Amino acid sequence: MTQLADNHDGFDVSIKDHIAHITLNRPEKRNAMTRSFWDDLPAAVEALDKSGDVRVIVLSSTGPHFSAGIDLASFADVTADLGAGDNDIHKAANRGMAFYENVKVMQHAFTALEQARVPVLCAIQGGCIGGGVDLATACDMRYASSDAYFTIYEINIGMTADVGTFPRILNHLPEGVVRELSYTGRKMSADEAMQRGLVNSVFETQEAMMTEVMKTAAEIATKAPMAIHGIKKIVTYARDHSTPETLDYVAIWNASNLQQSEVMEAMAAKMQKKPGNFAPLPPLKKVSE
Q1: Could you report the per-residue pLDDT of 54-70, keeping only the tens digit for each?
Q2: Any residues with CB less than 8 A from the CB of 92 and at least 6 apart, and which?
Q3: Known catalytic residues?
């Protein structure tokens, strides 16, 4: 049974068999991200995570391109409106601070994917441009069709990428490659992205990619949700901390959360070749900031 959540401006959400599927749905605009997208996406992700029923999130898009990034047309009046006060001098004085706060909201939209308790799988076809790269790198795993390409496009419009590209893409690509991509704005092909470790797999077509991505999501959904959450938490922690710190953290984590009943259920499910009856993630009382 498929449960449809509320549709949003720029994407749809469906849930089936513990898998939530977020689909960008502005193909006529190359799935460019509107102003409302930056509030709606984190709200949707956090609601899915909060329920405790969703075990995996798949993020994909429609049309020939994954995403052209920020819809510049919809943001044309944003910078003009920035700043507060009853005169132009006051507005000019705090415009920089207003810009900063606006960017922080946009950054949170993708941080919500990284902070979700469940894995997020990203399926990319065609262009993954500008903010699309920010979006993809905030996910746990990335998969690409053979026609996909990645562009840190911001240099081509005279700005420095600020929504999440650099702190995340450096976890996947060598520094020199990141500098080249961001200084030149050149396209990185799916094959190069695969070679350098940015994507997990490359598929001949978008259809083949989606079939395999959904299979992977389904496989993850059969595992113990609390264990999957623990893995995501520890991997992210290990990325940002030293080995001794991570060893201590994972020991504390398992001391607090490892349940013998879950281990026994996983072993029985594997031996009997049947789905495990695992405890769900508890609903979140409050979404973390």
Answers
A1: 999 999 999 999 999 99
A2: 83
A3: 70, 131, 134, 154, 162
